[in-house]
Amino acid sequence: MIPRELLKKIRRIEIHTSHSVNDIYAGQYHSAFKGLGIEFQEVREYQPGDEVRTIDWNVTARQGRPFVKLFREERELTVFLLVDVSRSHLFGTAGQIKRELAAELGATLAFSAIKNNDKVGLICFADRVEKFVPPKKGTQHVLRVIRELLVTQSTGRETDIGAALTHLDRVTRRRAVVFVISDFQDAGYETHLRAAKRRHDVIPVVVTDPREQVMPNVGLVELADLEEGRSVLVDTGSRRWRLEYERLAHAAAQQRARQFRAMNIDTIEVSTGEPFVEALTAFFRARERRR
Length: 291
Description:
The protein has helices spanning 4-32, 57-63, 98-115, 139-151, 161-171, 190-199, 239-262, 277-290, and strands spanning 37-45, 67-74, 78-84, 119-125, 129-136, 177-182, 201-208, 220-224, 231-235, 268-271. The protein has 291 residues and is of the alpha/beta class.
């Protein structure tokens, strides 16, 4: 039995994300991702402007006039959401925690997928895989995905993106569109990401919070590491400390961006307290233009 409060959350996310999908994403989603390949559809007589390489020489020889082959794109995709549920995603200072933002964004992508008749699968992970939902179609399946995004708890403290990508490799042999939704507070995942990109269309979705980039002057503050359990007392009144904090945060973000560019991987960046509509729209439009 699903608790009433959880049902309310699921319903709220369903209404909010379905509206976004209907208004913005559905057509752009369809255009942004290539199908798995092309399949033969039929032949017809050659018309001026047709590609010569599409001529079906066997039919042409039998009919005594040129015919060309017509193909269509195989549209059905498998979309996997790899969602970080580690303890660092329980952080948030802008009206929501990163975990809630990841759930809403994942729901939007899932509804976009089923609207285009694609399958959706889910892997929730922390330092190990916490939940696996095999890819399926349909609204009821997406509602299950949303429920798992909200209720799946981490049994470990840290983040291991490589473990999630390794599990993905075990559960699917088919090429998929893979959204890795995480704050990427992990090290050593680059090798796994590069290997996954050779088989799949991998899109990292970086989830952040404003206070991870800029720290205000609020005097003495105890900062806790949610993954390692350590805490430290800092004086945010120190301008030198705040500048060093911002410098380190900026350097880490720049290093991550360089790694993604080196792998030729498209990314999406979202932040708590801000609508992710603009970021997703920009991503879809950029993909559409490139196609």
